[in-house]
TrEMBL record:
TM region positions: 35-57, 63-84
UniProt superkingdom: Bacteria
Protein name (record): DUF4191 domain-containing protein
Pfam families: DUF4191 (PF13829)
Record key words, sorted: Membrane, Transmembrane, Transmembrane helix
Record organism: Cryobacterium arcticum
Length: 236
């Protein structure tokens, strides 16, 4: 009897870098009709700048002009990639903006260096699914409300008192993400954190975060958050 060969399932091959970029572009174009225009302008402006500089600085050297043009092309490609990344991030967040757990998704995946946060809220209203999240960084403690201010104000005040008891004189900043006119858009949340003036050292950030975590109660996951994707706190 012939021995049958073991057939091991092949691991699906991940798409290459160019294919990934194309997929990101296609996704972004569905939600951002201006992406093509911005990318074309992002490419042409550095190329035109390189050409102008070449003609002004070295009009008699063909080799140097070529180098300036190549530098402009490379700068244009870089500008296109930066624009694609920014617009793709905005398009991705626009799809989940307003949903319960959207702030947690930002804290899980987009926190900048020096900040520690969790996708799990520190306070939740079980009826309305409004929530308050917490991030700790060089700028102190930031409480991020998700939902209308009129419904989240009480939870924010309670968390502010908790931070004052545990963290002492640590600076507390409140950011609102929701339907209010002056609320911070979801795609700008991570960058908004980096604009807060530094008041803690790296060691103090870890110490304050550990003290707050030690008294934080486990809360039910807001509807809209996938519990299978919950991760521990992320720090850089």
């Amino acid at each position: 009897m012939a021995r049958s060969k073991d057939k091991t399932p092949r691991t699906p091959k991940e798409p290459g870098r160019l294919k990934q970029m194309w997929q990101v572009f296609q996704m972004t174009r569905r939600y951002d009709s201006n992406i093509v225009l911005f990318m074309i302008l992002g490419f042409l402006i550095p190329v035109a700048l390189g050409l102008v500089l070449a003609l002004l600085l070295t009009p008699d050297s063909g080799f140097t002009i070529a180098l300036w043009i190549i530098a402009g092309v490379l700068g244009g490609v870089l500008a296109m990639l930066i624009i694609l990344g920014r617009r793709a991030e905005k398009a991705a967040y626009s799809q989940i903006e307003g949903q319960p757990g959207a702030v947690g998704a930002v804290l899980r995946s987009s926190l900048k260096r020096g900040w520690v946060g969790s996708e799990m809220p520190v306070a939740v209203n079980g009826k309305t699914q409004d929530a308050v999240y917490r991030a700790v960084g060089r700028g102190g403690v930031v409480l991020i409300s998700e939902g209308p201010r009129t419904r989240t104000a009480r939870m924010v005040d309670e968390e502010r008192r908790t931070v004052a008891k545990v963290g002492g004189n640590v600076a507390v900043t409140v950011i609102a993400v929701g339907p209010d006119a002056d609320a911070v858009p979801l795609h700008k949340l991570a960058r908004r954190l980096t604009k807060i003036k530094a008041s803690l050292t790296k060691a103090e950030v870890l110490a304050v975060n550990n003290r707050l975590n030690s008294i934080t109660k486990k809360l039910p996951i807001p509807k809209g958050v996938d519990p299978t994707k919950a991760r521990p706190q992320r720090g850089n």
